[in-house]
Amino acid sequence: MAKAGLNRIDMPKQAVAKRIQNFSEVATGYTPSDAHIEAARCLQCKKRYCVEGCPVNIDIPEFILALREGDMPEAARILKKTNSLPGVCGRVCPQETQCEQACILNKKEVPIAIGRLERFVADWEREHSAEVNLPKSLKPKSGKKAAVVGAGPAGLTASAELARLGHDVTLFESLHTAGGVLMYGIPEFRLPKDIVQGEVEYVKSLGVKIELNAVAGRLFSLDDLFKQGFQAVFLATGAGLPLFLNVQGENLNGVYSANEFLTRINLMKAHSFPEYDTPVKKGKKVAVIGGGNVAMDAARCALRLGAEEVSIIYRRSEVELPARKEEVENAREEGIKFHFLTSPVRFLANEQGKVRAMDCQKMELGEPDASGRRRPIPVDGSEFEMDIDLAIIALGTRPNPLVMQSAPDLQVNPNGTVAAGISGQTSHKAVWAGGDIVTGSDTVISAMGAAKRSALVMDEYLRSL
Amino acid sequence: MYTIVERQDLLPKVHLLKIQAPKVAAAAAAGQFVILRIDAEGERFPLTIADWDVKAGTVTVIYMEIGASTRKLAKLGAGDAILDFAGPLGKPTEIENFGTVVCVSGGFAMATIVPIARAMKEAGNRVISVVGARSKDLFFWHDRLEKYSDEMIVCTDDGSAGIKGVVTEPLRDLLASSTKVDRVIVIGPSVMMKFCSKTTQPFGVKTIVSLNPIMIDGTGMCGCCRVSLDGQTRFACVDGPEFDGHKVDWDGLLVRQKSYVAEEAVAAERCRCKEEGCGSHG
User: Fold this and answer.
1) Which of A141, A302, B28, B250 fits as disulfide partner to B52, beta carbons 3.0 to 4.6 Å?
2) ipTM of the complex
3) Within an 8 Å CB–CB cutoff, is residue B42 touching chain A?
4) What Pfam family is a match, any one (chain A) (predicted)?
5) Is the pTM higher than 0.90?
C-alpha cells in the first residue's frame, strides 16, 4: 500500500466538476519544476531494481539523471532507445506493480514517480520534435522482410524493434487507424489520441510501412504473407472478442459490450455526434458490469455523456477489483457508484425492446478459484431489480479467432490464445506471437515487453536465413 | 484512399460504385461484404460485394440512399475517393453442388445475389431465381441474374411485371410442386427474409439468409451485429452474415436494427439542412 504523499510530488489533475463535462485528459502532467523536484529524489542506485521491474527495461536512473541535469534531449533519447511509446507508457502502465514497486525507496518511503517523469520527458520531446531531431540508431539494412499483424502496443513495438535492427517491416492493421486498444479502447481522458498518433508516426519514421484496412484472416492468410516474400511474421492481433454474460435479455437495445461502447466513443468520436456520423446511446441510469480498467473507462465515458447515475456492478468485493487503484479512485471522485458482490441474472425490456431494468443477485465469497481469487457464490433469495436504461458489459475479452482460422497449422490453446514459448515462438517455425493473443487480456506494457523479446529472436532467425 | 472509377445510377435512389481496391478484389468471394468510411468524420457501414474484377482491381457495391451516410456517398462519383474500404469481410457463401437451388431476392439485393447465383451455377446446380419488387420500374440487373438462372420467376406488388404479389407465394408453389428443391437462399429486407424462412420451414428445406444487422468494425471485436440463433449469440460479421433462416430470432433482429432510429433522423435532418443551406448547422 503506497504511503500517501510524504515527499512524492502529486500529479496535477483537472477539478472533478470540470472534468466530468469533457473528454480532455484528467491528469494534466508535471510542470518542469515538479519534474525536477521529483527527479532529485532518485538515489541513482548501482543495483537498478527499477530497470528489472520494467518489462522493456528502460534505463530509468540514466533518463532521470539526464532530466535532473536539464539535458532533455538526452533524457528523451534514453527513453526512446528501449521504448517507442513512452508517452503512452508513462500514462497507462501500472507502475505501482512494476518499476515503482521495485524502486528501493518503496521500502522506506514512497517510490520515485517514474511513470510521471517518463510522461514528462515524452511530452517535452513531442513538443520539441521539430527542433530536436533525435538520432534513431538504426542498424544497416539486412535485406530481410518481416510482417507484423496488428498495430496495437505489441505490434508497434515489434515493428519498431525489427526496423531498428535493420529489417524491412510491414505492419498490417484491420481498422482504419493504427494503435489498437490505445485508439479504440482507452479513452481520451486517460490517453489523448494525438499522443498515440505521434508515437505511431515515430514508428513510421523508423521505416515501418503501415497498411490499414487490412483484415488478417480475410484479406490475407498467414500463408499469403510468406508467398508475398515475408520471411518472418509476428502476430499481435490482441484479444478483441468481447465476452458476454449469456443471460436473458442481453441482446436488447441499450445493452453494449464495453468494446462497442468505447469504440464508438474513442475511435469514432460518437460523443461529438452529429458532427461525427457515428451515434452512441446516452443513458440516464447506466450499469457497467465488471471491475477492470475497461469497466472504469466505460463508466467514466457514460458519465461524460451526461448520465445521472453510473454504477459499477462487480461480483466480487472491493479487494478483488482488478482495475488500477488510481482509476478506481478517479472513478469514485467523479461519483461512480460501486455495487460489490452483485451479479446480473437477466435484463428486462420496455415495450420498444429497449432495456429498462436488470435483475441482480447478491453474492458471497467462497474458496479461492483457479485465478487465486475467492469464487463468488450466489446467495439464495437475494434477487433484486435495478432500474437502468443502458448496460455496458465489461467482462473481458478473448483472442479473435479470425487469424487462427486462416492458419490451421498454428497451435491454439483451449481458451483461444495462441500457444507460444517464452520468446513468442509458435508451432510454426517462422511465426512469433505476443501480447494479448498469447496471454489473453493483459497490460499494454506486458504486450510491449513480449514484443521486444520476440523481435530479438526474430532478428537472429532472419539473420540466419 | 480508394478511388471510385465508375458510378451508375440504377434507380433514382440506387447507385452502383466500382471502387479501385485490387487486394479486396483478389480476395473476394460470393456472399462477402466490405465496410466503408467516406471521410474523417464518417461512420463505418457495411455493403455487400455485388461484383469484383480481379484484373481491373475493382470491387462493385450497390447501395440505396436511405440515411445521412448513404446520401453523403451519393454525392460522390467517378474520380472521387473514399477514405476507408475494408474487406472482404464475413464468411463466403457455402457453395457446393446441392442439386436445385432457389435464389430469392428483393429490393437492391437482386444485384447482390448475382455472385451467389453465378457460383451456384458454376458448381453445377440448377438455379431458380425468384425476384421481387414493388413495381417493374424497380428492376435492374435482371439480365445478369437471368444469365446464371435456369428459370426466372418475377413478382411485383402491383402486378406491373410477372406474378402479382410477393416472393413467398411463388416460393411456396415451387416447394409444393414436383420440383425437388435442395436449398433456398434469400437476400433482401429482413422482413422478406423472415417470411421466406417461415414459408420454407414446413417443407424442411435448408434456407440460408444473409443478415444485415448494424455493424461497426466488421471484424468480430464489438458484438454490435450480434444475433440470436436457437438461443446462441452469434456475431454476423464473423460467424455470418449468412445463417440458417430457420434458427434466426427474427423479432430480436428487427428490434436491434431500429436501435438508432432517433439518431438517424437527427443525422438525416442535419444532412438535409446542410444541402439546403439553412445556415444553422456549420
Assistant:
1) B28
2) 0.94
3) yes
4) Fer4_20
5) yes
